[in-house]
Amino acid sequence: MTELRFHSPVGHAAYHDLLRLAQDEQASEITGTPTRVTVKGRVFWYDKFRLGTTVAQRYIGPDSPELRARLDRLEALRTERDARRRERTRLVRLLRAEGYASTDQQTGSLLNAFARAGVFRLGGTLIGTVAFRHYEGELGLALGFDRLAQTGDIDIGSFERLSFALGDTVETPLAEVFRSLDFAPAPSLDPGRTWRWTQAGGEALVEFLMPAQGEESIRDLPALGVSALALRHLDFLLKDPIPAVSLYRSGVLIQIPRPERFALHKLIVAERRRGGPDALKAGKDRAQAALLVAALAETRPDELAEAHEEARGRGPNWAARIDASLARLPETRARIRAVL
């Protein structure tokens, strides 16, 4: 039986305080006039400012009550920077004392560089095992050392259409970011497009991915200035991502999938990998899905039920893959049935 252990209410509250302060910090960096822009019925916010004789704009994020509240107190957020920095440092120290896992130096330096360049602000979403470990903070779920073990791989997903629509790009070209961290482009079947980088002398690998609308091919993400491998089922995973904070330095603001979507996606991916070159990863996929389903069935049953129904509603192939994975996880199958 899947064994759950949650962190204390103090630790869980401290994490969400840290997340709020990291979001406040990002908003305080707005230098011009926040401006609403409506695109196909959706509202987005941009920071518009003068750059010489022209008016430039920097993407802030999609409209939400939380973002509007921050924009309303923008001046206060700017004046609170020093106090906020000290409080973030204190909260990170508290979380470590509570048993939350810190992000290792290699991963943390990469996430920090991506955040500073604007990768997450511009729609990049951390996926894979590095994203999974951040559900410790979001759910207050103690993962334990064995579940936190990971490879050096970092996967970042983004929507192609969003990348084209934003009209903004990363503040530092990612090719420069990678060079500064001793990464080089990995060989690709399409020499004109780079979608993965490897670190010299190490095992770290960074890949950029996007949802496939047709064939699984390599396409461009102009907002990030890179290419990405298009894969099926990623649109479900990347829908409505959430902010998270990585415990590196005084906290790095990133973006991860919703935990219920991550769990269902892992069930699907595990079945797709069966019999293929990545078959050994299928067991890890199911283990992560089982743990998240157990936690969500207890703490967020409605969200879990909605994600399950949406995934199954996407067609018979989706439902068949979910059922095939759940057949290997009878306890997880029972937990899902109990929340429907």
UniProtKB/TrEMBL annotation:
InterPro entries: NTP_transf_8, NTP_transf_8_dom
UniProt superkingdom: Bacteria
Domain Nucleotidyltransferase-like: residue ranges: 106-311
Record's keyword terms, sorted: Plasmid
Name the record gives this protein: Nucleotidyltransferase-like domain-containing protein
